[in-house]
Specification:
alpha/beta; two-stranded antiparallel ribbon; 17 helices; 544 residues; 10-stranded mixed β-sheet
């Protein structure tokens, strides 16, 4: 079975006639340098919509959900060759229709079809009335054929007993397991694995856009979905009606990288973002006082003490020893959703201190209950994400491993070919991205010897371009997965784009602020951008 780092990487959730990808008009700016292979001429397919079966037929708000499947080129370099089925869901507009809004929830590994069922409600007022909300599931992830590798003769190698390596021995064991999986993927992989770059997915979206009759794309993408939006804008700059990217990844570091000798999941800076999010939350706790935060006055010190206990093997919960990897991956789950910082993380840290102080059975029971709550928060994130991701009806065995996440990341990004680069970067992360850097760094370790050919069709820039409509870029000041620097970089790449800042905690800004929702709706419906420098507040403070 595939290893798990304990949390999905870039994911947030509370969790198509004659031409499909039409040749563009004159490209603007640096995007004119895009390869000719980015443009593909194929007949526009016809989508046959049917009411989705069973419980999937209606949204939680009573809207009908329609399903379709379309066969698209497996390899856009061979548009008349083999095809792959792509699944699409649509929630029709309930009022005066403006067009279609395509959505993606992140991952890579999240289902855009599932997201479409409630995205219109979360993004902003009026979206459900004015847009058909459409989710195009990423190939190889949302529906068969899945991105799978098969071990030819023996079971998968045992993974680590911890979420990610810390010691040299653990790193060596992880590298050996990665090597075996890479070698077996070289001969035992589904064909889709070689055609899962973000650029392939963007081409799918553009085909569906034309199939539903939209002249240009309206889109909302969060987390990894921000890379989908940026890639579409760079590849097809004249086809942008309105694109919102939220919880934004730095497009340069995700792909070619400023220093490609460093693993992509280190250079994105997510470890730094998680460290900043935790420290700033603990300092906010100290600021508001004990009436609103039970560990105020010593909040950061209590976290550091808890971390040291885990590092030295002295953090025990319900008789089980927790190591730093357990603590870090689980704390990160709480940082993804602001309310969980107070409700689960702070309460756990408080009861760690209480147990050390009193050592009573009651204190131990309280600590065990707090830890179980914290793990549930982490697992809700993980259930929707790539690590351990197994859609209903698909059973993974010791002979079959899901590589959907790697099929995207290793195709998109330039990474080192020396697997020990991950351990070297992890050592650097201990100082530059304390506590969380190792977890993020090791997420891409399979890319060192990745056998897939998806990178042949990947888009890695140029990014600087002028689009037919500027983008709305949304960034959160204390985001533990996509630090706001990614949003600032993205804003500079697309001329005229505006950064809308949420001054709050959690991953992304979806449904966290009335101000953000209002501006998202104004942009999507009326193409009105907020004034530069606009800062929004969340619905409620971190410690209400």
């Amino acid at each position: 079975m595939r290893r798990s780092l304990g949390l999905p990487l870039f994911l947030v959730l509370p969790v198509l006639a004659v031409l499909a990808v039409a040749p563009p008009g004159p490209a603007h700016g640096a995007a004119a340098a895009a390869r000719a292979g980015d443009q593909v001429d194929i007949p526009v397919p016809t989508l046959t919509w049917k009411t989705c079966p069973g419980d999937a037929s209606r949204t939680a708000h009573g809207q009908t959900v329609e399903c379709a499947t379309v066969d698209l080129p497996l390899d856009y370099d061979d548009p008349t060759g083999a095809t792959t089925p792509v699944s699409v869901d649509r929630v029709p507009a309930s009022g005066r229709r403006i067009g279609s809004l395509f959505v993606n929830p992140g991952g890579p590994g999240g289902s855009a079809r599932d997201f479409a069922r409630y995205a219109g409600y979360l993004i902003g007022p009026g979206i459900r009335r004015h847009f058909d909300v459409i989710g195009v599931d990423p190939r190889g992830i949302g529906a068969p054929p899945y991105a799978l590798c098969r071990y030819p003769s023996e079971d998968a190698p045992p993974g680590l007993a911890v979420p990610y390596p810390v010691t040299q021995h653990q790193a060596g064991r992880q590298i050996r397991a990665d090597r075996i999986l890479d070698e077996d993927c070289a001969s035992g992989r589904n064909a889709i694995v070689d055609h899962m770059s973000t650029a392939d997915y963007v081409r799918d979206i553009d085909v569906v856009r034309q199939a539903v009759g939209d002249e240009q794309l309206s889109y909302y993408g969060i987390s990894y979905g921000s890379m989908v939006g940026q890639t579409y804008a760079a590849m097809f700059p004249d086809r942008v009606r309105a694109i919102i990217v939220d919880g934004v990844l730095d497009p340069i570091e995700w792909t070619a990288g400023r220093d490609p000798s460093v693993p992509s999941t280190y250079r994105l800076g997510s470890g730094h973002g998680a460290h900043e999010a935790l420290v700033s939350a603990l300092r906010e706790c100290d600021r508001v006082g004990r009436d609103r935060c039970s560990i105020a006055g010593h909040a950061e010190r209590i976290w550091q003490r808890t971390y040291r206990l885990a590092r030295h093997g002295r953090l025990r919960v319900d008789g089980h020893r927790l190591v730093t990897q357990d603590l870090v991956s689980t704390a990160l789950g709480a940082l993804y959703q602001a309310p969980a910082i107070k409700r689960q993380l702070v309460r756990f840290l408080h009861d760690v201190a209480e147990q050390r102080r009193h050592r009573t059975a009651r204190a131990s029971r309280a600590l065990a209950s707090d830890w179980a709550d914290l793990v549930r928060v982490r697992d809700r994130q993980q259930a929707a994400g790539p690590y351990g991701y197994a859609p209903p009806g698909r059973a993974l065995t010791n002979r079959v491993t899901d590589v959907g996440f790697e099929s995207v990341v290793c195709s998109d990004a330039v990474n080192p070919t020396d697997p020990w680069a991950w351990q070297r970067a992890s050592r650097t992360a201990d100082t530059a991205q304390p506590w969380f850097g190792r977890l993020w760094t090791w997420a891409s370790s399979l890319c060192a010897r990745w056998p897939g050919a998806g990178g042949d069709d990947a888009y890695r820039g140029p990014w600087r371009t002028t689009t037919s409509t500027p983008l709305l870029v949304v960034g959160n000041t204390h985001d533990p997965a996509t630090p706001i620097q990614g949003a600032r970089t993205a804003t500079r790449q697309f001329a005229g784009s505006v950064l809308l800042t949420l001054d709050g905690w959690g991953h992304g800004a979806l449904n966290t602020s009335a101000c953000v929702r209002t501006w998202m709706a104004a942009y999507l419906i009326d193409q009105e951008l907020p004034p530069a420098g606009t800062v929004c507040r969340p619905y409620r403070p971190l410690f209400p």
